[in-house]
Amino acid sequence: MQPAWSVIFFTVASGAGFGLVILTVFLGLFGGVHGLGTNGTAAAVIIGMVLAAAGLLASTLHLANPRNAWRAFFRFRTSWLSREAVFAVLFYPVSVLYLVGIVLSGDGAWFTWVGAIGIVVSLLAVATVFATGMIYASLRTIPQWNSALVPVNYLLLALASGALLLTAIVAMASDEIRAMALLSIVLLAIAGAAKATYYFWIGMPPSGPSIHTALALTRGQVRLLEAGQSHDTFLNREFSFQASAKLLVRLRLIVYATVFVIPFVLMAAALHAGHPMLAPSAALFMAVGLVVERWLFFAEARHTVNLFYGRQTC
Amino acid sequence: MKLGLVIDADNCVGCQACVVACKQWNTSGTLGPLTDHDPYGDEPSGVAFNRVRSYEVGVFPNSKTVNMPMSCMHCETAECVTVCPTGASYKRQEDGIVLVDQDKCMGCNLCAWACPYGARELDDVSGTMKKCTLCVDRIYDDALPEEERQPVCVLTCPSNARHFGDFDDPDSHVNRLVRERGGQQSLPELGYNPVNRYLPPRNKPHVGQERGTTPGGFADRLKGWLSRSVSR
To answer: Does CATH number 3.40.50.2000 belong to domain A5-308?
Structure first.
């Protein structure tokens, strides 16, 4: 699949933004983020909302006809893209209500209804990220995406990047990053294990559709003689993207290093050596790494249209 | 009604006449125009509803060229309709034709991703998704003579490789062809249940093939050499 930069920026930015809000609000249910006061919590939620909004706005850039984007809310019953749009838009008024709630509560204990709204906010954020993953996972045409591992990866990476971002915000406000750094390390380890499982799974020999089932010719070897076109069409530009195997392996190593290993080491160092300012650099490494990870997610996906252009399996 | 096509992979000669006829009719049809880029230049490309690709099956000399015309299969489980967030893509109740409402489409490409056959192509000038309409603007047109109320690809095919009909009627022309010739679906394992069927090549050579003689063993060769020497 052709990697689309607007979609890559969208999923990375809004993933981190929603992850940040989920963790901030969720920890708010248990006495607040350690080291952040009411103002700091409000700032974290606002940063999360801005990141998510930036991502959502970027996602409209890949639309060929954005004038009709408002119609995307009307097929909630069947379309995951529609569900994502509805959840994302519902998220904002409830988050604003949450912000009003914690600011009105002041620095003492928050009102009880703020907790209830907090639960709704985190559920909507989780639902939005899950719906993003399901847009890809629901496509039977792309074996590399058609798996429960895809929404799991999207959710875990959103939580891990949100945790790093929250640790960075805490580091700016105070020195008490211990609790958040520990949480980040745990989430990074879980997300890393899930992503490694995904890479292992897509490396298994293909067992799905083949050129034989595509052409309904089950006997003999089949190869493309003539595509009937002298130049690339929309189908080739959208689906036939190919990167060299060497590049893909190198990029995977970069993903492992920048998304998981380096932030993990930086966080551990911040924890032990007591340098809270290592936390923002960890978040920065992960953000860059996640762009590569999303790019690979597209580059390694093989659509069944390629079977009709001579690919033997998908 | 369940309208669709039967394509005879044995008859298709890959002449691309249906591709041209489709483009000609549909560029001024319901979902037209079918935008072209650089049509007379070095890198022509553009929207098409119907494409014909050619394949070699088997290994020479026991090989055969098979041409595969592909347009929308008007699937019974049309995932392109399921994933559409705007409701622009829809499948008609009355005849099963899958269409795109050009006034509602936002050009997100998701339906093209969900289609395993590459039947949907984005027109980047109108910003909307375009696809085969099964010539919905011909098949119900009372102004046309009855025998011309068929998709234009079917009408134009010079080798009678394309057939149009109702798959809900067990005695229809298309259903009889599928029964007699063992019509197949493309990518049946994905579960989209495409309506269009492909008739596989018949399992016999069309042209008489020369059967070569295989060289025998040592004894045969000795015998041959002996008989040649003796007659001399």
So the answer is: no
